[in-house]
Design brief:
Rossmann fold; five-stranded parallel sheet; seven-stranded antiparallel sheet; 22% strand; 14 helices; globular; alpha+beta; 4 domains; SH3 type barrels
Length: 434
């Protein structure tokens, strides 16, 4: 086994799925895909050979390290082949996140002509769907191609490194718990079940307990990623980092609420801040909701060059000037800035300046910026929300953002308030850089 084969086997230790209508036709000398399958098996892989694309029902419970997929299946037309392969790619990434090689003798430009525009396919080397020529990945070249791809693909690279670190922590945790008692799951579950009074909620708390203990045992991650300047989809990436999308889920009697659920009632948005331990109790009847307001005015950046002060629109790539004053008196500058601040939000050291009664989270629903109003708390009965088609759960705000909301709300709720700064006290004070 070559060094490349050993490295790939370490990263992708499971089975390989090959789908090609030539896979069972003859010998390796005649059909290149058979040679590829034989070489993978000779290097310790269990290869599942399919001559036709599986149905969703057949595929959904399968698990593979990577997939090699033909593009052209006889006697279908080009359009039929493209339609069926694209539909199967959607099934693959509905149930798995694995590297997929489209391995064919059809020219790459022809295949890309059908794939470009599909959300799953990226034209860069970082795509999880790779188009390769069958003749170029015979023998050890298949492992070299996989390694080169992993190094160029941050999604797969991070996932495999994360899996290896998580697996070490999982083994450590279960070993430690087993040494304490072989019945530790029963002991923990009994405690949760007695507290929740409901087995389904106790199962959720059991899962949370295992996850938290697993995280506490994780060693330091080392992903060795490069840092490119910017991506065109930054807002979408940040939205996925802080929000788990539910895609317009209506509330039913079996819906399980979470702290951080973002609920749309008609055209208004609210975030649920009730404690998770209270939400899972069988006698829970209501939610604690804070109003979320989408900011329609872009944040601005303040620039001062000598006596020239500009308020720059933060939504414009070039910083379009909203206000441009040539002033000589600092008190006038401050009055103008205060007036602008009353109408919009300012960015300072890459943070949006907030008032004490709000917390602002950018890149949330649809990439928008939302202000959570800490003074606007309402209690809603769950029974009033169930079955209402005008009520939908849009997603769940994830940690650490939901933690920041809860912490700031608790501070605001318990604060006594202080006297506001008298108007004009800082009119003659403007900080400038030397």
């Amino acid at each position: 086994m070559t060094n490349e084969a050993k490295e790939v086997k370490k990263l992708f230790p499971g089975s390989v799925l090959i789908i090609d209508d030539d896979i069972n036709k003859g010998d390796a000398e005649t059909y290149e895909i058979i040679a590829i399958a034989n070489y993978l098996e000779a290097n310790g892989y269990h290869v599942i050979r399919e001559w036709a694309i599986p149905t969703e029902q057949e595929f959904k419970d399968m698990s593979f390290s990577f997939i090699i997929l033909d593009w052209k299946f006889s006697p279908k037309s080009d359009v039929e082949n493209a339609r069926d392969v694209i539909a199967f790619l959607q099934i693959i990434y509905k149930y798995n996140f694995v590297p997929t090689f489209i391995c064919s003798t059809v020219p790459k430009t022809t295949i890309e002509g059908y794939l470009v525009g599909e959300p799953l396919y990226k034209t860069s080397d970082a795509s999880c769907i790779k188009i390769v020529d069958k003749g170029l990945i015979k023998g050890n070249a298949v492992f070299e191609a996989i390694l080169n791809w992993v190094n160029a693909n941050p999604s797969i690279h991070v996932m495999k490194n994360w899996e290896q670190t998580i697996e070490k922590a999982r083994i450590r945790m279960f070993n430690e718990m087993y040494k304490a008692s072989e019945h530790w799951p029963n002991i923990i579950f009994q405690s949760f079940n007695a507290d929740c009074g409901d087995a389904s909620h106790a199962n959720q708390e059991m899962g949370n307990f295992i996850t938290k203990n697993l995280l506490s045992r994780i060693e330091q991650f080392n992903f060795n990623l490069s840092t490119p300047t910017i991506y065109e989809s930054t807002k979408e990436v940040l939205s996925g980092e802080r929000l788990q999308r539910y895609n317009n889920v209506n509330i039913t009697t079996s819906f399980k609420f979470h702290t951080g659920d973002i609920i749309q009632i008609n055209d208004e948005f609210f975030i649920n801040i009730k404690r998770q331990c209270d939400l899972i109790r069988s006698d829970n009847k209501n939610l604690y909701l804070l109003k979320c307001n989408k900011l329609t005015i872009s944040p601005f950046v303040i620039q001062k060059d000598g006596f020239n002060v500009k308020i720059l629109d933060g939504s414009s790539p070039n910083g379009t000037s909203v206000l441009n004053w040539n002033l000589t008196a600092d008190d006038v500058i401050n009055k103008k800035i205060n007036k602008a601040l009353s109408k919009t939000k300012a960015i300072h050291h890459n943070k949006i300046l907030e008032q004490s009664n709000e917390i602002i989270i950018p890149c949330l629903l649809d990439g928008g910026t939302y202000s959570i109003d800490l003074k606007n708390l309402s209690i809603k009965l769950i029974s009033e929300l169930v079955g209402d088609q005008n009520v939908q759960v849009q997603g769940r705000l994830l940690a650490p953002y939901i933690n920041a909301v809860l912490h700031k709300f608790s501070l605001y709720f318990a604060s006594e308030g202080a006297m506001p700064i008298p108007k004009g006290i800082y009119d003659n004070c403007v900080a400038t850089e030397d």
